[in-house]
Design a protein that fits this description.
The chain is mostly helical and 182 residues long. The chain has a domain at 64-167. It has helices spanning 17-21, 34-55, 65-88, 94-115, 120-153, 157-168. Helix 3 (65-88) packs antiparallel against helix 4 and helix 4 (94-115) packs antiparallel against helix 5. It starts with 16 loop residues before the first helix and ends in a 14-residue tail after the last helix.
């Protein structure tokens, strides 16, 4: 008697249609080496950070201080604008841009407070961090979480988004659509 095979070629009875159409487990979204590699990198960063804490000078002046901050603030503005545009377009890119905005906002708050002079400058930096940057970072993370839940509950959303993105990034004239009138 011949053995039945799954659609993936494995022996055994064919999978039920609902099981075949079920979303892949989250671990299948990235190759297996990604988790261990990033864990090792994070662990290697700890002794490096400790070494820096012992060897970096307490004070340092550099030539491009203003350019560093202007560049950082332009990246933050771009992340916030991309979050807004992807929200208006209801795009799956919202997850990435809102996450990037949250990361940049927390980084901005940290470096503003850590590089401020004691006194009035520190009070302003701490107030701006507490009242603007960190709350906006939390809102951005809330957007990410809400979008993740919505995508998880909407069958076929990511596939439709993938097709829409492929069409919008295609170079050249649009391809003719087949006549569906039968």
């Amino acid at each position: 008697m011949d053995e039945l095979q799954h659609s993936d070629g494995e022996p055994g009875p064919p999978a039920e249609p609902a099981a075949r159409d079920a979303p892949a487990p989250v671990t299948a979204l990235v190759p297996g080496w990604v988790g261990p590699t990033f864990l090792v990198l994070a662990l290697l960063l700890l002794p490096w950070t400790f070494w820096l804490s012992l060897t970096l000078p307490r004070r340092h002046a550099f030539w491009h201080w203003n350019l560093a901050w202007v560049g950082f603030d332009l990246m933050l503005a771009a992340a916030l604008a991309a979050t807004a545009i992807s929200a208006f377009r209801r795009s799956a890119w919202l997850l990435f841009f809102a996450g990037a905005a949250a990361t940049l906002l927390v980084s901005d708050a940290w470096f503003d407070v850590m590089t401020a002079r004691p006194g009035g400058q520190l009070a302003i930096a701490a107030g701006r961090a507490a009242l603007v940057e960190l709350p906006l970072a939390l809102v951005s993370l809330g957007i990410v979480r809400r979008a993740q839940r919505l995508i998880a509950r909407t069958p076929g959303y990511l596939e439709r988004e993938r097709r829409r993105l492929r069409r919008s990034f295609r170079l050249g004239p649009p391809r003719p659509r087949p006549d569906r009138r039968g």
